[in-house]
Recover the amino acids of this structure.
């Protein structure tokens, strides 16, 4: 993540549309997590003041976003496939995000 804003990230299972994992990431930090095998949508919101999860407040009325493609975590023989995701704009980057309604988060 980029310094200046914190991020709240959700992984949502494509199979059952249930959230599988959430992460709070401080701006400027890097995290590494083990994700259960499966296909996921990545959704996030960010801001500088955290109000909490209660009543789905998060960072207030900041924007909510979803990656435009799903991510498939697989085990093929002796190799587990994963991803590195950067949550800020990168020149010639390959991940597009789409704004979503807070109700979709």
């Amino acid at each position: 993540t980029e310094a200046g804003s914190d991020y709240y990230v959700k992984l949502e299972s494509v199979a059952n549309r249930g959230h599988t994992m959430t992460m709070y990431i401080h701006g400027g930090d890097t995290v590494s997590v083990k994700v259960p095998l499966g296909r996921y949508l990545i959704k996030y919101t960010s801001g500088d003041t955290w109000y909490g999860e209660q009543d789905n407040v998060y960072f207030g009325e900041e924007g909510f976003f979803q990656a435009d493609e799903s991510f498939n975590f697989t085990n093929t023989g002796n190799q587990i496939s994963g991803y590195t995701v950067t949550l800020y704009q990168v020149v010639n980057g390959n991940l597009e995000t789409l704004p979503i309604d807070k109700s979709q988060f």
User: Anything to note?
Assistant: The chain has a mean pLDDT of 88. The two ends are 19 Å apart (CA to CA). The chain is about 0% helix and 40% strand.
